[in-house]
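Figure S7 source data.
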Amino acid sequence: MSKKILVLPGDYIGPEIMTEAVTVLETVNRRFALDLELELGLLGGAAIDAHGVPLPEETLASARAADAILLGAVGGPKWDNVERHLRPERGLLGLRSALELFGNLRPAILYPQLAAASSLKPEIVSGLDILIVRELTGGIYFGEPRGIRTLDNGERQGFNTYVYSESEIRRIGHLAFQLARQRGHRVCSVDKSNVLEVTVLWREVMEEVGKEYPDVALSHMYVDNAAMQLVRAPKQFDVLVTGNMFGDILSDAAAMLTGSIGMLPSASLDKNGRGMYEPCHGSAPDIAGQGVANPLATILSVAMMLRYTLAAPEAAAAIEAAVSAVLDQGLRTADIHGDGTTLVSTREMGAAVVAALQA
Ligand code: IPM
Ligand code: MG
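Tokens for the predicted magnesium ion complex:
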């Protein structure tokens, strides 16, 4: 039976990088006879323009019916002035929440060819391979009450609620430990339990979950120290597991270690392994429309989709090998370009990956 992939290009550079990723997906679809059916949908600013809301009913229905979702990036200054609950980001958060995509996998892998593009010294980052497992449907991103209110003295006050229930911590914990079993057998749980009660509970529950995985070493780190360690000695980590907001911040920092956030894919999984796949980077309004964005994060997200949701590991490996091959050829988009390499456009980079796949 054919499998349905919902493609949501999104905003600004979203459609540019998605065009290349879809060409790659169609290439492996044919070559590995995957029987995938692609459907296009609107999310974020593109959906606001067409339907007045960032997550239209139609998109949500297609997302529920799909086996996997491939997303470009949403948001940008064009929608800065829309009401808060209608912002493009709300569409993304709404989709994560509605589909219960609680497990966000953000690998930070340094391709040896890009060691010079990292902002850190090569010896600190060469061979880097860490996996950030970010809780994605809870924490301060979704906690109620939230809002901006006016106090009796006329002053405005903004407030959010940082809340995690035991079951939410437990399920992301299990995911992190299971993933660690397929890698270096080490989990570092990141919290702020010296200050925040919610993460005191986080640490306790991680300890309990850890007892079920005696073959995996569990350690804990405060988030401020984790941020420092990520730029000091990132190779000490294997799997990092943390809540929604800390994960948002740490994954951007980890991304930069690899040379460019334009290289990093991500997966957001539900409890059955169904998922949404997207680059870690945003919609990059500053470079949109110029054909210079790096499509590799989205192309590598296709590989993650094939591996984690579509059970097509050979196709995933073929894409990863093709990406490595184009880097070997010295092809670089502007974000990773340096001396002795060849500057290429979004389109040329996509075409080179397709050519490597067909070689
Ligand atoms: C990310 C992004 C999103 C987030 C934004 C666009 C809502 O920064 O996926 O990391 O904060 O989760
Ligand atoms: Mg982010």
